[in-house]
Amino acid sequence: MNDRKKRRKKEEDEEVKEGKKKDLTEIITSLLLLEEQQKRDQEEWDRTVEEEKQMFQENHKKKTKAMIDYYSDFQTYYNELEDMDRSRRKRCNSASATTAAAVSAAGASEFSDGSVKPGSGARRLWVKDRSKAWWDECNKPDFPEEEFKKAFRMSRKTFDMICEELNSVVAKEDTMLRAAIPVRQRVAVCVWRLATGEPLRLVSKKFGLGISTCHKLVLEVCSAIRNVLMPKYLQWPDDESLRKMKDEFESISGIPNVAGSMYTTHIPIIAPKISVAAYFNRRHTERNQKTSYSITVQGVVNPKGVFTDVCIGWPGSMPDDQVLEKSALSQRANGGLLKGVWIVGGTGYPLMDWVMVPYTQQHLTWTQHAFNEKIGEIQRVSKDAFARLKARWCCLQKRTEVKLQDLPVVLGACCVLHNICELQEEELDPELRIDLVDDEMLPEIPLRSTTSMKARDAIAHNLLHHGLAGTAFL
User: Fold this and answer.
1) Which terminus of the chain faces fewer neighbouring Cβ atoms within 10 Å, N or C?
2) What's the pTM value of the predicted model, to 2 decimals?
3) How far is CA 390 from CA 252, 304, 444, in A?
């Protein structure tokens, strides 16, 4: 009897063990299946992400190629226009020379006949009398300095320096038909037009010159500024200047090796006759509820707000990161000339081996918030510089009469004149100051360098560790 009970109990124990063993096997099998399923899901996810990434990159390359092809066609078109315009001007000049020769011959004939006496003041060519009393008053030595600065955005001393440097290029000789316009008046026409943005009709009245003459003078002087003054006053810094700039930027923000602060602004233009869509500025149109067209100006400034690099003229529909890709600055970086330095930009630029930008993802940590606050201090340097540029040269705030193909020359001259005023410490009238608004769009591929991601994290932690990070976000 007892043996039977023991045997039954032993069998029950074995059944329990078998049941537990079976349950354990099922659990292990389930875990293995679950792990396998997770592995497959992860592989599927990685494959999907990689496909999306490749598709994204292919689309980006296609868009970039399309834009480059479009701009090449656009440049070819304008080159042809320039050639046609140049030919037309040559024909006009030839016709003018022929007319002048005929008039001179007629004058000489009259003189030989005794009908026109020497010194009688008789005109050889009819010219409309225009009053230039306003300019004559401005040009007097006793004209108030404050009034002069209000009109030309610079002191008389700075204006005289510009005239002296441009004299050899801008000066013209008197002809038999008329006296040449003086260099000071030529430069004044250009500077006043850029400073006020007033229409050529008003420029003509102020300086006693024809409208077409004023337009021609503005372009000639702007071209002279670009060719003569730009190489001197707007250039990338040498090694010694770069070292000083890095020290100054680090003292501002605590971020090391910063070589410049970068910003891109838009200049309004009249709707072009061709490729209208390329210049359509959707963000400004949506904000202002008014159709807007523009071209871009990308600039890098030093700690004083002086431009060290500019890229001018790309269509307003292009985002900041694409303008950067097309710029000479990007070519300089690709050539290895910006190794070991950072150019600080806003959220419209991607993080690259040489471009440092703020964190843009959601739910930032304290360290990232603090870093953004400090890098924002560097960003403000370039934004404030562009605000002063547009405030000083009001022609940049309104749609201009200048042809699209001539605009880069005019805008380049404004940047050079801005630098001269900043270097000469010309104070900007507080009444002229403006609030600069340029909508920034996140680039399609915001992170383009894993090395820079790690470097940015290291800088952010270093700022927080040494008590240099901002605290305004708290």
Assistant:
1) N
2) 0.73
3) 24, 16, 29
